[in-house]
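PROTEIN DESIGN WORKSHEET
SECTION A - STRUCTURE
LENGTH: 285
TOKENS:
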């Protein structure tokens, strides 16, 4: 029991810390993410400097500042860029799975409950999406509509629909022949009422647990796309973009690429551990 609580609270604490920093970034006493200090390029973590510009908060004039995580190749504070970049990763990691969960969950419930031709059409459509190369879709969307979050999030959400549909359909198939569903049919409840009151509450739990795993996957995908230049354009910071920039100076200043990579790793690991823990708890209920 102690190990289970540890695997729940430790990743949850890290995720809450990252989320809190991302949400309150505007009020934190951090340097502007695009402020360049050409005198301290690729500075090591913990470097203390004197700034002569209004790069920290709203205070102007000479003042001391510590680059707690160092600076990148352009002298930008990595701590502030990681915090601002967390907004991009969290926006993609929460919104895209939510789109997939809503659409895939509803389609999976319809397929698993009504079966027949509805199941054939929905399952066939999901197979088509799975067979289509996702990278080609992302490249096409980025080429025609631009590389920003308004294009990236719906595209990733669309690609996540089949995964949630399969989980929802499998769960609905198990529930469709349960006693409480049969009893609801016998008293004359409509199909929509049965889906909303009997099926949906029982499908929502495994979907939410599975959503944490998909969140981790989406954050990794966004990091890879940023590395390839297919996510948010500069100067907006993102973890994948920071890793790509650090690749050029990996031998001379490894912290430029390794620190954002470590933050990305810890966030994805926390989501996976938390998802596995909640999945174990849900099975024991």
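SECTION B - SEQUENCE
RESIDUE ASSIGNMENT:
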């Amino acid at each position: 029991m102690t190990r289970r609580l540890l695997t729940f609270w430790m990743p949850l604490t890290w995720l809450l810390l990252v989320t809190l920093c991302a949400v309150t970034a505007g009020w934190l006493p951090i340097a502007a993410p695009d402020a360049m200090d050409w005198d301290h390029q690729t500075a090591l973590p913990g470097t203390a400097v004197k700034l002569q510009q209004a790069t920290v908060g709203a205070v102007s004039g000479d003042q001391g500042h510590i680059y707690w995580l160092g600076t990148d190749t352009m002298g930008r504070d990595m701590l502030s860029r990681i915090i601002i970049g967390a907004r991009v990763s969290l926006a993609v990691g929460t919104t895209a799975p939510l789109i997939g969960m809503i659409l895939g969950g509803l389609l999976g419930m319809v397929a698993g409950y009504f079966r027949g031709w509805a199941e054939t059409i929905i399952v066939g459509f999901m197979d088509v999406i799975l067979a289509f190369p996702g990278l080609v879709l992302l490249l096409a969307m980025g080429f025609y509509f631009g590389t920003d979050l308004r294009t990236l999030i719906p595209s990733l959400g669309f690609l996540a629909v089949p995964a949630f549909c399969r989980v929802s359909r499998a769960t609905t198939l198990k529930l469709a022949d349960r006693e409480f569903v049969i009893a609801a049919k016998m008293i004359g409840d409509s199909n929509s009422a049965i889906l909303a009151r009997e099926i949906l509450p029982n499908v929502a739990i495994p979907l939410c647990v599975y959503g944490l795993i998909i969140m981790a996957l989406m954050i990794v995908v966004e990091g890879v796309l940023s590395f390839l230049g297919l996510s948010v354009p500069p100067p907006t910071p993102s973890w994948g973009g920071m890793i790509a920039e650090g690749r050029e100076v990996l031998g001379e200043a490894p912290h430029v690429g390794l620190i954002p990579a470590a933050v990305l790793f810890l966030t994805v690991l926390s989501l996976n551990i938390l998802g596995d823990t909640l999945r174990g708890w849900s099975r024991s209920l």
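SECTION C - NOTES
The radius of gyration is 23 Å.
The longest strand covers residues 47-51.
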